[in-house]
Amino acid sequence: MADNKKLTPRDEDFSAWYNEVVLRAELADYSPVRGSMVIRPWGYGIWENMQRGLDGLFKDTGHENAYFPLLIPMSFIEREKAHIEGFKPELAVVTHAGGKELEEPLVIRPTSETIIMEMYAKWIQSYRDLPLLINQWANVVRWEMRTKLFLRTSEFLWQEGHTVHATSEEAEEHTRRMLGVYRTFMEDWMAMPPLTGLKSESEKFAGAVQSYACEALMQDNKALQVGTSHFLGQNFSRQFSLTFQTEEGKEEYGWNTSWGVSTRLVGALVMTHGDDNGVVVPPRLAPTQVVIVPIWRNDDQAEAVRSKAAALKARLGEQGVRVRIDERDYLSPGNKFYEWERKGVPIRLELGPKDLENEQVVLVKRVCGEDEDRKEFLPEAQALAEIPDRLEAFQASLLEAATARREANSYRGVEDIGQLKEIMESGGGFVYTGWSGDPEVEERVKEETKATLRCIPDEEFRSSDAPTKCIGGGEAKMEVVWDRAY
Amino acid sequence: MADNKKLTPRDEDFSAWYNEVVLRAELADYSPVRGSMVIRPWGYGIWENMQRGLDGLFKDTGHENAYFPLLIPMSFIEREKAHIEGFKPELAVVTHAGGKELEEPLVIRPTSETIIMEMYAKWIQSYRDLPLLINQWANVVRWEMRTKLFLRTSEFLWQEGHTVHATSEEAEEHTRRMLGVYRTFMEDWMAMPPLTGLKSESEKFAGAVQSYACEALMQDNKALQVGTSHFLGQNFSRQFSLTFQTEEGKEEYGWNTSWGVSTRLVGALVMTHGDDNGVVVPPRLAPTQVVIVPIWRNDDQAEAVRSKAAALKARLGEQGVRVRIDERDYLSPGNKFYEWERKGVPIRLELGPKDLENEQVVLVKRVCGEDEDRKEFLPEAQALAEIPDRLEAFQASLLEAATARREANSYRGVEDIGQLKEIMESGGGFVYTGWSGDPEVEERVKEETKATLRCIPDEEFRSSDAPTKCIGGGEAKMEVVWDRAY
Q1: How far separated are the first and last CA of chain B, in Å rounded?
Q2: Which of A274, B35, B128, B231 is the most exposed place for a label (fewest CB within 10 A)?
Q3: A residues 117-136 near B, CB within 8 Å?
């Protein structure tokens, strides 16, 4: 039963490490359905906390939740030309239902712009009905040939926000606002600092005017797109006759945005903070923040230790700390330590008869700085008083470490494709260069280096010396960031 | 824009009233996808609160959440014979995906016993892994020919709990425990008192050994099955090789339960508490518990009234009350009153310049007892102090009224089919009779009266004088409850 085998080290095979840790930390499992995964309770608990954090931020910015149908008529998906071109290869199609062949096939939503616009067109009459700010928590299906747990599966869970505005400016502003909400969430909850910026034309969402993205740097120095926010202009409004009467009494098409993040975030979390012992979950997202492992040799001790453990749990619970006591009697303490380290619980308290005598606990941090001890013997009262602050400090230190790692693996002032290729081949990272805006250059870089244009970074990420040369030669019109990506 | 038209009264056409109120309270809307509905923010907000209540009760009873695939191989569904017989006519089938025809068709889950058992078989080795208590929040699809908003749609949202136990007794006990959890939720959160009991063989879940149900009596005196809890025995374990090693070292099949409630509960809520003015939402489930309608004639007044409204909202918010201020300037106060009454907000506060002068508010209850006034003028401080208690009293009074209505429409001591038919034809209700257990009688009652056997009621609902005669003639073996049902 005990699973003490070491994980493949990250520097030996990052991809093997990732798969192992996801499975053995019981975040997820393969399912018998090709391309679909099962999210196990520990992984789903993290997702629930992510949902709570995001949902709060959405509501604080004026959004309400709603629910739209899973099945969309094929003809809806086909209306917006770029949209169907982008999604057609990934559609799962229902052709039979209720024992009969359907007159029109239905697709399982790969995203819901079309069905939602159809409904919005019915609900919106006037500028007074705007802005309309709605979010949906849902599952979507995009058929995938090469899948990877959490990162790319045929079915995944996500949220998709869909808004309508009276002006282009307001919709654009909202697109950027939601990008900011994602960034805030990733930094404050996930301790994962994303790079934010605009996608190039070739990488934007099928049907969007502009797509913004959060790009996070994983420990293998590959980029992972972890969230997107799209300005849709009037592209979908036109196809679904979503019009409104302006204040001046004119009929105009609505201006739309859509934005989403998915269970991919759980994979991002693993690849941002995990180490060779397992996952590391930031306290704000940890289903269990403190695990208490009671230790005893005989029944008398068991009684006393258990009751002390329960008392500690209650006291910490009163302070809002999520605590679990691991009372399984068929596992040794050592085996329990391995398991909770692998699952990434931030703090472990070990509690034995000697600790009771000394009114102390043994506190072990999941990770710590180089000049710290992971293990401390603390007076019980001190531990109780300090744990909430220690969890906050743990959260902050994870963000700090991840930010330092991103900066250490960002390269500025790179001027030609050869240099970029060298960086990619010696490990990768975020590489900042100039770009003319020519898609042919983008294509060439990709062919020669396997790096793709991750984004045109937002102002605060740009180099203080703006590059003047395009990486493909000639003059630069803007600065961009390249990396190999998942 | 204003929607002041009266609803069709319930006693004129209950079904028309129901559809109108669901649409015009903006709980839900028809979608262009046959059989699927859209849950609008007000309806979804109620569902979110239901989820919160249920999820807390599930976690308090030791369950964790997880997520299993939407798409299930056809061969899985076919393994359990009764299961496929029951669900075959309702399946939606994916035959094509990723641009190709699939080798094996996939069905959209109508329920997830099969795929979940397949995974459990992989996870469970020993009695030490038991009980396994997992719940899933998900969408399911059961193709329906005759749909009704919330009550019967091809796609609906629900939770499905799936547990594994080491013994038959423990699984049976858990089946009943979860029935109790549902009853608690319905009474304490929904203010809807269900009748609980065992389903007859002909009405049980496809694949179950025994099904228990919560049956609620709607205002038209028809029964609505609002939750079910199934003891599955080893039926699914056998088909999916879900075995475990017992403490004695033997190999045994696991014992399963499954249980679910769905967005149908929102429909049940409407038909339990709604009146001719609209929906009535119990405070614990109301997305907005108190709506403040500020009233003014000129800009000076507007300023003062608005700032007072904001202060009231803040003060109530501190006490945990969910408050919304309706500041829309293009609707008259009267139109706002109609709208929030239709949506069922428990308490409305009207606030005008005169009220500010007198340091008072006008408090209007959505519904009240016969000897009460709906509208009261209250000193502001008193209103602030009393509103939390008033919301609780409102919640309690709804449960009381619904319980009294159920009792007033329950008929005991009925001895023959003719009498039952008479009750059904003069309005219906819960009719308690004796039954021999003969399914032929069940069938005959249905044909002659259109009433179905709702359940064999739990002990506490049984008549103090146990019926001795079966309604179909001969001796009674048990007491049962009949009604026409949705």
Answers
A1: 34
A2: B128
A3: 118-119, 122-123, 125-126, 128, 134
> Residue B275: exposed, middle, or buried by beta-carbon count in 10 A (0-12, 13-18, 19+)?
middle
Which pair of structure tokens corresponds to residue B79?
């393994």
Residues of chain B with pLDDT under 70: 1-2
DSSP secondary structure letters along B423-476 = HHHTT--EEEEEE-S-HHHHHHHHHHH--EEEEEE-GGGS-SS---BBTTSSB-
Residue identified by tokens 């007198």 is B358
Report d(CA B198, CA B354) in Å as an integer: 58
Beta bridge partners of A30: A37
- Predicted local distance difference test score (pLDDT) of residue A34: 84
**Number of H helices and number of E strands within chain A?**
14, 23
B44–A contact, CB cutoff 8 A? yes
Burial group, residue B373, by CB count within 10 angstroms (0-12, 13-18, 19+): exposed
Cα(A60)–Cα(B39) distance, rounded to whole angstroms?
Answer: 21
In a mutational test of the B interface, the residue from A24, A27, A33 whose CB has the highest number of chain B CBs within 10 Å is A33
Q: How many CB atoms lie within 10 A of CB A349?
A: 24
The answer to whether A233 and A256 are in contact (CB under 8 A) is yes
Please give the pLDDT value at position A1: 56
Q: Which domains does chain A have, with CATH numbers?
A: 14-273 (3.30.930.10), 288-390 (3.40.50.800), 410-483 (3.30.110.30)
**3-class SS string, A348-364:** EEEECHHHHHCCEEEEE
Q: Of the candidates A319, A314, A312, which has an alpha carbon nearest to the alpha carbon of residue A292?
A: A312
Strand, helix or coil for residue A284: helix
The pLDDT tens digits of the residues spanning A45-99 come to 999 999 999 999 999 999 999 999 999 999 999 998 898 999 999 999 999 999 9
A64 and B48: CB-CB below 8 Å? no
For residues A103-120, give the mean pLDDT: 97
Q: Judge: B32–A73 Cβ closer than 8 Å, yes or no.
A: yes
Q: Are the CB atoms for A231 and A250 separated by under 8 Å? A: no
Enter the DSSP assignment of A149: T
Nearest to A67 among B38, B65, B118 (CB): B38
Per-residue pLDDT band at A4 (split at 50, 70, 90): confident
Which residue in chain A has the smallest CA separation from B133?
A: A41
Amino acid type, B147? T
Q: Tell me, what DSSP letter sits at residue B463?
A: -
Q: Any idea of the CA torsion for B19, B21, B26, B31, to the nearest 10 degrees?
A: 0
Q: Strand pairing partners for A135?
A: A65, A161
Residues of chain A with Cβ-Cβ distance to B145 below 8 Å are 98
Q: Which of B263, B272, B271 is nearest to B227 (CA)?
A: B263
Pairwise CA distance, residues B352 & A105, whole Å: 56
Instruction: Tell me, rounded to whole angstroms, the distance of Cα A101 from its chain centroid.
Output: 39
Angle between helices B264-273 and B14-24 (to 10 degrees): 110
The per-residue pLDDT for range A243-279, each reduced to its tens digit, is 999 999 999 999 999 999 999 999 999 999 999 999 9
For B305, the token pair is: 């009234």
* Torsion A69-A74-A76-A78 (CA) sign: positive
- The answer to whether the complex's ipTM is over 0.85 is yes
Express as a percent the part of chain A with pLDDT over 70.
Answer: 100
The per-residue pLDDT for range A388-447, each reduced to its tens digit, is: 999 999 999 999 999 999 999 999 999 999 999 999 999 999 999 999 999 999 999 999
- In residues, how long is chain B? 486
Return the HEC string of B287-310: CCCEEEEECCCCHHHHHHHHHHHH
Q: Which of A32, A64, A93 sits opposite B94 (nearest CB)?
A: A93
User: Pairing between strand B243-245 and B255-262?
Assistant: unpaired
Q: What is the pLDDT of residue B1?
A: 56
Contact B166, B174 (CB under 8 A): no
